[in-house]
Amino acid sequence: MNFDFSDEQKQLRDSARRFLEKQSPVAVVRRVLEGDEGYDKELWKGLAEMGFTGAAIPEEFGGAGLGHLELCVIAEELGRSLAPTPFSSSIYLAAEFLMAAGSEEQKAKYLPKLASGEWIGTFAFAEGVGEVTPDRIASGASQGKLSGTKVPVPDGEIADFAVVAANTGGSGVRSVSLFLVDLSGAGVTRTPVKTIDPSRKHARIAFDGAAAEPLGAAGEGWSILTNVLDRAAVLTAFEQVGGSDRALEMARDYALERIAFGRQIGSFQAIKHILADMYVSATLARSNCYWGAYALSTGSAELPEAAATARVSATQAFQHCSTNNIQVHGGMGFTWQFDCHLYYKRSNLLALNLGSLSQWENKLIERMRAGNSAKDAA
Amino acid sequence: MNFDDTPQEAAFRAEAKSWIAANAPKALEPELKTSGFGGLYLGSVDPMQAAKAWQKKKAAAGWACLHWPKDYGGRGASPIERVIWGQEEGLYAKLSAPFTIGHGMCGPTVMAFASEDQKRERLPPLASGEEIWCQLFSEPAAGSDLAGLRTRAEKDGDDWVVNGQKIWTSGAQHSDWGLLLTRTDPSVAKHKGLTMFFLNMRSPGVEVRPIRQMNDQRTFNEVFFENVRIPDAQRLGAVGQGWQVSLTTLMNERLSIGSGMPTGFPDLFELACQLETPDGPAVDDPAVRAKLADWAVKASGLRFTAFRALSALSKGETPGPENSIGKLVAGSMMQDIAKFALDLEGHAGLLTDPDDAPALAKFQTMLLRSPATRIEGGSDEILRNIIAERVLGLPPDIRVDKDVAFNAIPTGGR
Ligand SMILES: Cc1cc2nc3c(=O)[nH]c(=O)nc-3n(C[C@H](O)[C@H](O)[C@H](O)COP(=O)(O)OP(=O)(O)OC[C@H]3O[C@@H](n4cnc5c(N)ncnc54)[C@H](O)[C@@H]3O)c2cc1C
């Protein structure tokens, strides 16, 4: 057993950290948060130049061909630095969709542009309130035209294209198919929407007979997207763990620095216990993420269960750590000026953007049960 | 034990009900209903104007600060009548937010310590909402450790001259008057060198700078004092007795906060009943029910704990530290409820524009405001310490600063 990243992967993590500390300091995050620009272009360019965007994309399609473990360590650093870029939409989602279901032509057309950062892709999925199910996808496509409204779409305003889930007839899981839609084409209207974390922009996209090219076989959409969401969940879980660790460090540093009643507040057991609990949840999440990374990188049949485990655990950890980080900072933690809220907002965004915690809790238990009965049958 | 109104209480309730029915600003009802905790959105109407108008109307008819004596702008009502009024006022009580600190904390302190003339002068306009008050206690280096404050007041003839800085002062930018806790003697132990005043916020040398909060509102402020002169007549309590005076304020804070803390539960319950999941309304889901039930019993526990405190109060007992429970439970509950509501809303839970988001973004507003509830007016940790030490009698933390002269306490370079 060697349940750890390799030395090379750790070096990659260190270089990603150094790069992001320099290129994605809080000032950059705040600029996007306060501004109308959808992302930080310089940073995005740099991430591509460093080979991070293409880390898991095969060399034949313009990537670095490293693999998903490498992408995991990069994701952790992106989460830690709150990097305001479309990395998750373009790489964890769009590129994964293409790698999972794209034809050779589609891969050849899109993946090199995604690897180089030249194009930004996203996934247009949710339409209304509550859990997205096959029957709740009202957007429809036929004869190469797609119509319907998707909201909120991450990076919807800046993306060049989107993978769109649409109904292609009937109901149930077989009713959903996936399409590639050029977002600069006719029949696409995008409007920005405000969200709880303005450092990551979202949009409403209305499709009205937009030209749509099938991605994967008709009726296979739900099964493809379920798999891709699992993959993205592992990568996002690393972001969440990176964010948890940073929130914990901030809280610890403040607990050492702040004096009340003539002593460091970190000397109060109440504060020590808060910090220790943060450490515990971040550590459990990290360990679960390692399992997810293993399953993701080996194409293991355990992926659905491992991904849900990582997702639930990392979502809890990041929300827990970002919330308590504010608490330890007292009144300062509630100000705009201190950075605590940036992590609080990001943690609550990441808790919802691939489907909510309770949906993933359900998936986890479903999958554990399915796994058990498969074992019994064997 | 009896929840029913006595005949007098029933008569009082009927009177309150009919007055409210005839006078409340009904046009605001829809907005008030959807205004989330942490923000009052009244469409085209300015919330402060609406608040002042309602308060003035209530005062003119004797429904403002009911439990205050009539001479000071109140009605001389009993604590129970005050609760009955609150139940009947319902939604419209949300309009009282700008007056909470003045009515709940500053007023009672003035009532306990000011001269008769001052009370007759200052309290009626406070009750009627014409004048707004703020609480100038916390400082950059003195929040939980309030007695560590440094704003200096020095005697000069019949005046005191104040220099220093307060922070987190809610509503200072709208306030006419402030309740100010200062240090008058740094050479004695920290709790002993404090003195309380009230001052006109328009006094020369007072500067108010709003602070931007994480929810992008600016309700609290920094307040700077540069050679601000306060007449000695505006001192509340004896010189050096400021800590004891502040305990009156804080005890009333407990009462006013503790009895009516919103938890978000009724709002969540409504959402769960309305929100359709793929398998029917969310409230049908056993997992949702388990959470709802957990919060339901907490909410009702708080409500009845407040009732018990009121019953004690109406028998002449003073509210004690056990009332710390209210904010301790309600604060984190509201935060958890907001998170769970967003969870139920799924991807749409991300949206914050009232036009896009479910329930007019009520829960998103709550999510971004609720962290403050666990900090303001005594953090969760401080409240737990109070319960452990003052209710349960556990030994206090070892204090390095208690019997040391204030100017000899370690400060970590601040
Ligand atoms: C929205 C809002 C409105 C406010 N309005 C007002 C107002 O109108 N007027 C006013 O005077 N003040 C106001 N306050 C200030 C508020 O009372 C203080 O923020 C609060 O008392 C905490 O103080 P602090 O911010 O200095 O945090 P600190 O005291 O520095 O606390 C930091 C952390 O240390 C913990 N801690 C401190 N001491 C101990 C201990 N002995 N044991 C265990 N843990 C400890 C705290 O719980 C917290 O987690 C407001 C605050 C907020 C957030």
UniProtKB/TrEMBL annotation, chain A:
The keyword Lipoprotein does not apply. One of its GO terms (molecular function) is flavin adenine dinucleotide binding. Residues 219-352 form the Acyl-CoA dehydrogenase/oxidase C-terminal domain. Its cofactor is FAD. Residues 6-118 form the Acyl-CoA dehydrogenase/oxidase N-terminal domain. Signal peptide: none annotated. CDD domains: ACAD. This is Dehydrogenase. It comes from Chelatococcus reniformis.
UniProtKB/TrEMBL annotation, chain B:
Keywords: FAD, Flavoprotein, Oxidoreductase. Residues 240-392 form the Acyl-CoA dehydrogenase/oxidase C-terminal domain. Gene3D superfamilies: Acyl-CoA dehydrogenase/oxidase, N-terminal domain, Butyryl-CoA Dehydrogenase, subunit A, domain 2, Butyryl-CoA Dehydrogenase, subunit A, domain 3. Residues 53-130 form the Acyl-CoA dehydrogenase/oxidase N-terminal domain. Residues 134-228 form the Acyl-CoA oxidase/dehydrogenase middle domain. Its cofactor is FAD. InterPro entries: Acyl-CoA_Oxase/DH_mid-dom, Acyl-CoA_Oxase/DH_mid-dom_sf, AcylCo_DH-like_C, AcylCo_DH/oxidase_C, AcylCoA_DH/ox_N, AcylCoA_DH/ox_N_sf, AcylCoA_DH/oxidase_NM_dom_sf, Mycobact_Acyl-CoA_DH. Belongs to the acyl-CoA dehydrogenase family. This is Acyl-CoA dehydrogenase. It comes from Chelatococcus reniformis.
